[in-house]
Design a protein that fits this description.
Elements lengths: L1 E7 L5 E8 L5 E5 L4 E8 L5 E3 L7 H6 L7 E2 L5 E2 L3 E4 L2 E4 L8 E2 L12 E6 L2 E8 L10 E9 L4 E10 L3 E2 L3 E2 L17 E4 L1 E5 L13 E2 L11 E2 L9 H6 L3 E6 L7 E7 L5 E7 L3 E5 L7 E2 L5 E2 L6 E5 L14 E2 L5 E11 L1
Antiparallel strand pairs: 1-2, 2-3, 3-4, 4-5, 6-16, 7-10, 8-9, 11-12, 12-13, 13-14, 14-29, 15-28, 17-20, 17-22, 18-19, 18-21, 21-24, 22-23, 23-29, 24-27, 25-26
């Protein structure tokens, strides 16, 4: 493991970057500011190492920009309608930070805070955050750890563990943007994707709040039950895609009772790098980077619209307000425990 300074955040506190390398030479870098996944380098078919996640060269830039590159999202990821929910007969108000709704528990999301480094092992790091009663508007004192592990098989495992002293809402996720041709290679629209889902949750309008319906993907541009290029249907004259400028939808994963299982698979013909993604969550938000603004990323790379895609394991958006959706309510003193894995290989 290597540790180095990663620049000061906007408040002037120095952050640190922890880099782990396995026997094959693959590496993973994690920052204590935001519990950010900053870099994942894996070999392509020619043996050259490619960094396959978008990011920045210092902590302050992560804080300044709004794309959530590599972010650990909490207390509740995705959208909560009208920035309000009711729990145990009491109404809780969050900050309306997007179209009158709350997105990713911002402002002052978990990605904008320093996490305490609890443990560092040869190929893993555990970071801890204490989220007090009323933090972001949520009830209860919530304590959470996230452990990043780089395996010898070139997988990055993300394991969340926590508990709260009151009933609360918890829906954590990682918001890394992947580009399997390399983070600075341009659009991901030629990369192919499959998602282990026969249905998705349509949204009502461009504010991206689900209607409450679980709709089949078959026969629609939303269908990724078999491999297709991300860009094949992304600009189709289809209302759901027009609402969100391309893919930015929750997919209903099959067989949620089976624990950690495959949620998606992606591949770049250019580099030969493949990624299989696994989770024990009920849903995954597939976001095709439709609203990445032109900017400079790591190592001077140019990022723009659709330079990366996200596979955010999660409860469905606005589930706390939607009867019939799996509930994101964490009961007092019950363990919060969920795992997502991104496994890389070459074809």
């Amino acid at each position: 493991m290597q540790k180095k300074e990663f620049g000061k955040n906007q408040e002037g506190r120095m952050s640190h970057l922890y880099t782990f390398t396995n026997a094959a030479g693959a590496s993973m870098s994690v920052c204590d500011f935001g519990a950010l996944l900053v870099s994942v380098k894996v070999p392509d078919r020619e043996g050259k190492f490619q960094d396959v996640v978008l990011g920045y060269d210092e902590a302050a830039t992560y804080q300044k920009m709004a794309s959530f590159f590599g972010a650990t999202i909490g207390r509740s990821g995705n959208r909560i309608a009208n920035a309000v929910f009711e729990l145990n007969g009491k109404e809780y108000h969050l900050t309306a930070n997007e179209n009158g709704n709350n997105l990713h528990s911002n402002p002052m999301g978990y990605q904008d805070r320093f996490w305490e480094v609890k443990e560092v092992q040869e190929q893993s790091i555990t970071l801890l955050l204490e989220s007090p009663e009323g933090d972001q508007g949520f009830p209860g004192n919530f304590t959470v750890c996230v452990t990043y592990t780089l395996t010898e098989e070139n997988a990055v495992s993300i394991h969340y563990q926590g508990s709260c002293d009151q009933d609360t809402v918890v829906n954590m996720t990682n918001h890394s943007y992947f580009n399997l041709a390399g983070h600075g290679s341009g659009s991901v629209e030629d990369q192919v994707l499959s998602i282990e889902a026969d249905a998705y949750t349509p949204v009502l309008d461009p504010a991206s709040i689900p209607t409450g319906e679980i709709a089949p993907v078959q026969g629609t541009p939303m269908d990724f039950t078999s491999f297709k290029k991300i860009g094949q249907d992304i600009d189709a004259e289809y209302q759901q895609l027009q609402f969100t400028g391309g893919y930015d939808h929750n997919y209903v994963l099959r067989s949620a009772e089976n624990g950690v299982r495959k949620m998606a698979e992606a591949y770049s013909e250019k580099t030969g790098i493949a990624m299989e993604a696994y989770t024990d969550c009920v849903g995954v938000q597939f976001y095709a980077g439709n609203f990445i603004v032109d900017q400079t990323g790591k190592e001077g790379a140019h990022y723009a619209k659709r330079s990366g895609f996200c596979l955010e394991s999660q409860f469905y958006p606005n589930a706390v307000n939607t009867p019939g959706f799996p509930s994101p309510v964490l009961k007092a003193e019950e363990p919060y425990d969920t795992t997502t894995i991104y496994q890389f290989s070459v074809r």
